[in-house]
Amino acid sequence: MNRLSFGILEFGNRHSDQSSMHTILDVLDFAELAEQKGFSRFWLTEHHVYNPLIGWASPRMLLPLILQQTERIHVGTAGVLMNFHSPYQVALDFRLLANLFPGRCDLGFANGRPSPNIGQQMRCEQFSRYPDDFEFRVNRVARLFGEEESVLRKEQTIIPPAFGSTPDLYALGSSFRRNEWAVNNQMHMVKSTFHTLDSMDFDEYDVIARYRDEFARKHGYTPHAVIALAGSCVPDETTRKQVDEQMKKINYGRPIVNSIVATPDEFQERVWAIAKRYGVSEFVLREVGQHSDQQQESIGLISKSFGLLASQPAQRITV
Can you give the residue ranges of the Luciferase-like domain (predicted)? Predict the structure, then answer.
């Protein structure tokens, strides 16, 4: 039986009896545990929210700390809000990080927008006056990495260390339908299932297969197609009810859409159904448990259920 691989998508949400610094320390410990349990990735989100308990808005300064205290797990952002950042600065930071920790640095791009107040401070201009140039800015980062000789010659621009390692690039969205853009920029793709209620309605098996084929023809290797899930694996029904109630508290009284909060057998059944439906074998989990011990228990149950500590690498499923 082929295996699935799992990563963590860390939002920094913790119970309200903790301070923001407690949250950061918990997340650092959580990254180490995720590696010990056989998880493949640990991604931190960029979110600019009005909440004094959140440990970070931009996680970039945390990445080298997590990379330094782990050995194998891939670490990165999911994702950088590129409408609000300089492509040149992003390329500088992640090129350096990718060379300090070669083969372990991921750079994801997201087209989210903070409040107008924060957006104006990030770009030092009137929020309403600038266009959505997300795609242009992502294209620029991809060019700085992928066309380095041309950029050096034509623009006298260097992203040091010159001609060194580059991070793996990931395009984040609610579908795989921007696959042509991802192929052209040599980006892996991540589909979030918890941002919109209808994100699970798209029939994208053929889209993903075509994306893989076109990417492989152009770049010579098969890209990652990843599903981002929200949920928690719980030991019993009592804990499931507790996690469901906690989840509503962080989501304005409503459950996070399409979330999977279930005991191991049901959790495994529902995840495998998604894997077969889309033809994917990679997932990243937004853990919705609000206590550190709940989150730790959840990833332990997932690790055991899916055999994440098995020595052989994960393979794509056959459908």
Answer: 6-118
